[in-house]
Amino acid sequence: MRGPAFMTAPLFAASQLAVNVLSAQSLLAAFGVLGVGVVMFAETGLLIGFFLPGDSLLFTAGLLCTGSGQHGVKLSLAPLLVAAAVGALAGAQCGYVLGRKAGGALLARSRSVRLREGAQRAEELLERYGHAKAIVLARFVPVVRTVLNPMAGALGVPARTFTVWQVAGGLVWSLGLTLGGYALGSSIPNVDRYLLPIIAVIVAVSLLPLAAELYRSRRAAKAKEVRG
């Protein structure tokens, strides 16, 4: 009798330790506020973090501060906001420094098609919209927010310019999504039942600034052609 019970204990512990890094709820249940800071740093500062769920993690974490989440996960809002902001800002600055020192070598060695496409889009953003707009807009585009920081360093964007605008964009992105989740969780009972469609909407909305800029640039280009 003792044998089977003894064997189930490590199996239960192993199942508790299993974490799905692509799931915001799994990451938050396992690591809490600390996990938010680490993921923000990895996604914005390290190329290996391009697949992490940044948008959904911030929104879900904010929602869980209201006690509306599943599995009894409850986070504190103030530490969460600090962890999200510090992780996002420190990660972007780290990515910039790595890009400045290593140039494009890190991206050139990558075999990920998605990462290479993101690097191309990041470079196009910097060329088309200038440093300030590109750095802010990139925060709201998955993968691009990972690769734009080292690309900015590799392409010689001035450190002061990068720092000012990455801080501005990073605060709006990290705090905005977190507070958005908190506000929604506070106003709608049992909102966690609709979490997946809500996250899909959040990701779509986060792409609106980039879509608006693309629309404006195309209209401006057409206007120039007509005048020419």
Automatic annotation (TrEMBL):
An annotated GO cellular component: plasma membrane
Keywords per UniProt: Cell membrane, Membrane, Transmembrane, Transmembrane helix
Domain spans labelled VTT: 52-182
Subcellular location: Cell membrane
Record membrane topology: Multi-pass membrane protein
Residue intervals passing through the bilayer: 77-98, 194-215
Protein family: Belongs to the DedA family.
Protein name: Membrane protein
